[in-house]
């Protein structure tokens, strides 16, 4: 056993960094070999799929002994020049499955994207409402503190200057603001 830290470092280097550099070199060559580019694209497709599946199934497979070492061996098997396992895994496993279920996968992705957008809008609306109510609570608190402060410090001077004018409570200001806002919206809709 190599140890968790060392295994993770080797996976980063040999599973991601080295193949990434090889893919870069393949793309940046003057005369790109189509087969070599296809090989590296297939590699990254398999690695992406494996990474997604691993995140989902980590609870079940992460505890297996030597899991990290097996993952490292799989990555090396996929790109090693003598085995080039990417072609086998892609042609024997991935392509047949995806080609059979491509329309279902596409439909699920569209559905998930729509749900994610709806969820983002829902949270945005909730956050703005919470922010608005928190702001008004802070303003109410500050107004109450201001009244306490003014009533304590100016009680002696009150008689000297006469009665102090009082402002309407913040809650009534807020209610009138919302009423004016809603009346304005109704007027705009009526136009």
UniProtKB/TrEMBL annotation:
Membrane topology for this entry?
Multi-pass membrane protein
In this chain, the stretch annotated as Disordered covers: 150-191
Checking Pfam families in the record gives: TB2_DP1_HVA22
Query: Which InterPro entries does the UniProt entry name for this protein?
Result: TB2_DP1_HVA22 (IPR004345)
Protein name (database record): HVA22-like protein
Location in or out of the cell? Membrane
Q: What is its main location?
A: membrane
Query: Gene Ontology cellular component?
Result: membrane
- Which family is this sequence assigned to? Belongs to the DP1 family.
Q: Provide the transmembrane region boundaries.
A: none
Which gene underlies this protein? LOC113863231
Q: Which organism is it from?
A: Abrus precatorius
What's the superkingdom here?
Eukaryota
